[in-house]
Design brief:
Blueprint: H1 14-24, H2 29-36, H3 40-52, E1 56-59, E2 66-69
Antiparallel strand pairs: 1-2
Amino acid sequence: AATAPKNKGRSNGEPKVLDAIRNGKDLRGVDIMKVTGLPRKMVTSTLAKLREHDHIKGRGHGRGTMYQTVE
């Protein structure tokens, strides 16, 4: 029998982005890029997916949006 992937439905960047937000609290996209080493496009799309699934929330608009995990 095959085993299910651990991160089913998640992009490769989601665990890194979630860890960065949990450890950093109130990070902007550029901060997440620096911490994770992921490219801007991947960070942006990952943040959108995480917000869509209510794993994180954002405060602010545009480049200044600060992200934190939903508790």
